[in-house]
Amino acid sequence: MRDLYFYPLALILVGAILAVAILPGRGQTGLSAAQIRQDGYTLSGDHLRKLTQAPGTVATFSQNQPGAFTFAVLSTNLPRGIVEPSAGVFATLGTHYADVFTGEQIKVTVRARRGRTHPLQTLQFAYFTVVAGNSGWRDFELSDTFADYSFIYSPAPHDGPNPVHYVGIWPGDGGKNETVEIQNIRVEILADAG
To answer: In the predicted model, what is the mean pLDDT of residues 171-184?
Structure first.
């Protein structure tokens, strides 16, 4: 094909591809506050890859046959006392979630079990805010089968724009490579008692 025809056709094709990619997303700005109130926050499946690992912590992922992630395997390779204070392995809840959860009574749940190799006995997790305080670490005795471990917390109102909240898991204080398997992390607003 001659250059005279090739380049104009290539530009038209690239423009069409970009239009198809951009147009379906126009006007979609994420979840509304009403949707977050109703559905809460869940991190599971392939989205577990979004977990952030602080220094001294490790996250690997187990896949089922088709290749989808089924759970994360968390551990620590350094004692907690010698690393900088952190949220451990954590999920980041963006500002749209933080704005809705602030001032509400929320239920924070981690679905977990002892690891298959070097099993961790006690799960520690917490809810963190950047400026308004944290829930403090909560301890739960793990079982050999997946179970939900939960606590109730009310994030305090915050000053300033763009708050960010986190759910952090510290997989073992001793840094002994003990493992915990995490299937999902959920945060939901509790219904009014009245």
So the answer is: 94
Give CA angle at 132 (126, 133), nearest 5°. Answer: 35
Give the type of residue at 14.
V
Q: Which residues contact 181 (CB under 8 A, 6 or more apart)?
A: 62, 71, 72, 73, 74, 112, 113, 114, 115, 116, 146
Alpha-carbon distance 175 to 61, whole Å? 19
pLDDT digits (tens, 9 = 90+) for 8-50: 554 554 444 434 333 333 333 478 999 999 999 999 998 999 9
Place of tokens 């809840």: 93
Question: Per-residue pLDDT averaged across 154-160, rounded?
Answer: 82
3-class DSSP state of 68: coil
**Alpha helices (runs of H) in the chain, residue ranges in sequence order:** 3-22, 33-39, 95-101
In contact, 87 and 168? CB cutoff 8 Å: yes
Specify whether the CB–CB gap between 186 and 40 falls below 8 A.
yes
Query: 177 with 118: CB under 8 angstroms?
Result: yes
This prediction has a pTM of: 0.80
SS3 per residue for 94-105: CHHHHHHHCCCC
